[in-house]
């Protein structure tokens, strides 16, 4: 027996020794060809096994193989896979993965992409794989809700109606760029995410540059810049089909196909998807068809052309009206309550809806003049058609109706139950009975069509080995067409609307324009220059200058007779400029610090020049808004821990603020309020900790202190003759800025069960959210602070699994948002008492879910 035991021990020892000798240890570092930066989280798998690992924050990896020789398969989303043979212990050195997208590197130059630990700005980047995992049925901006400084909500809850605030600034003051092209509305700076339904399907990466940002063009980045890069053209042939199903009838189907880069230098990628559903909020059905096309051609070693077109034709019901908390509690629909819909002839009909189609088309030319100099140019166009639905009441007297002859759609008398949907059939019957007197009530659409053209060209030249010059031009021409049109007479023959002086009858039928009809014409010409100085790999600095001229012109077709000289105004010009600079110093392999500072002026909004929506009263005293911002930051990159700390302060002077007054039945007035200033300052912390090779823990904390700086008193109110008729005061000193949570925190866990299976659980917490309010409404000294919304936190979870399906690669994604069905208020408008009883609110969504599948071919 002892001899047998000894033999077994010897056998086991020999077996272990054999296994030990058969293993190899392979090390290396992965970088991307586009920015020559490390690729954290890349997969390295021993071919033919499930044995693998991931790269760390600096792109480094170590893998103990099961065999002494074989092959490693290296993959990372957005890059071509690479197979490398190994034999014994090996250090593979630096391995460069080639981008799987043709022209991506050139797009990044135009788009001003920031580089981690080099560009001295606070930046967070979300890549395509994380967007696919975390988006689900959420609004596109909500992908960023675990990012420092970000507050994103669904607003009213309609498809595409989401909004985002960055460091306390709303979308009007957050620059959004797609492939380097600015998409903020040229008149008011707003961003309507419903115009970009389907953007999540084609986004290669989304980068949030907080504060000054790295963008060189003069964009309205008071709070920061959201820099979205779409796919270009896949270098490898193939495609995929996908589908997603979710709560409340959510359905999505899509297909993508790429030719790959052919020997002729030609490549094309085409993608399309259809999305529809009933909507979480009552009365908000939606449908959208999104598309994406990219065609590129490598002409020779010096020239590349790339054509891109994408957009989405969509329509969705909306919840435009907030309600008292008590209203939601009394309604049978609870937090899903919506007063803006009803039934007509048995069909759901939206009182408020949105319909829009905004194709974005660009032609990019990349020209390598020589080894040191290149020019990247994007010529783009956007043609927007659509608007939002609403109600229209007759201008004529209508006995029996509310609101001095104008039909009141919100009347409880026309609803099915106290808080039920609108009974359109009753309105139709009454309009029919009104006969030759026309409709007392109708539906209309407020249209905001536009034509937008632009050219953005950037020259990049290596003046020396250490000094790089970037310079360029930015030209834009925009015409916004604003009018209302009758869409449904609700059983009547016509409706009376006397707002058009060129229509003496006042009779309007379906398709006719009513209420207003005008064009907003905006011109833009800008130039920028930037010097980047890299002393060595450890010290980088830059200085950037930009200047621009914004011109506004208005053409009115309703308030003035045809041929009247007042029908079209002169152009009013605003010269803006900016300067910013910064430096980043890598103390060693683990630590870096950066600092940046900048000042810029941006033009007043279009409506500040034409405050009463006519061509008579022009605010010639409108001034530029002035922004000063500075920031310091620290970064740590260790073997397992990556962390960032940022301190910022932004001073916003002369925020555009005008007030209109009805002085008498026939006369209006306005006040041009200067000195409306705010200070936004705070600290942001974020980290990723690799607890094990399979477990990552992420977290962030953002603590803001955003307040209006001082009272503004004695502002003159002017009549149409520019005479002072009264004064107005704003008592806002030290009042908290509303509309976004000033304290946000997040904690996340990412666990890899295997190379192709990943579980993500996130907790997001929001506090010190003050109800939104207009500073002009605070005319009483000693008024209380706006209502502070109760703090809340929500859990989200998602899991993705990749597997082989015959000869194809397939993946499944499942996601649950607000796992515990937490009830919370996400948006609030301050009421007369600045308390919970008078605030008008939107509740956030309860528990929602989605399941998706993708098959690659």
Could you please describe the fold and organization of this structure?
This protein folds into two domains: 19-97, Immunoglobulin-like (Sandwich), CATH 2.60.40; 233-856, Maltoporin, Chain A, CATH 2.40.170.20. 7% of the residues lie in helices and 53% in strands. The protein is built from seven helices and 52 strands. The longest helix has 21 residues, at 2-22.
Kindly provide the name of the CATH class of the largest domain: Mainly Beta
Shape: globular
Integer average pLDDT: 88
Strands, count: 52
Instruction: Please identify the structural class as seen in this structure.
Output: mainly beta
Radius of gyration: 29 Å
**N→C terminal distance:** 60 Å
Q: Give a short account of the largest sheet.
A: 24 strands, antiparallel
Task: Write the CATH homologous superfamily of the largest domain.
Answer: TonB-dependent receptor, beta-barrel domain
Helix fraction bin = under 10%
Runs with pLDDT <50, length 5+?
Answer: 10-21, 397-406
**What count of helical segments does DSSP give?**
7
CATH architecture grouping of the largest domain:
Beta Barrel
Comma- or semicolon-separated keywords:
single chain, 857 residues, mainly beta, Immunoglobulin-like, Maltoporin, Chain A, 24-stranded antiparallel β-sheet, 5-stranded mixed β-sheet, 7 helices, 52 strands, 7% helix
Summarize the structure.
This protein is mainly β.
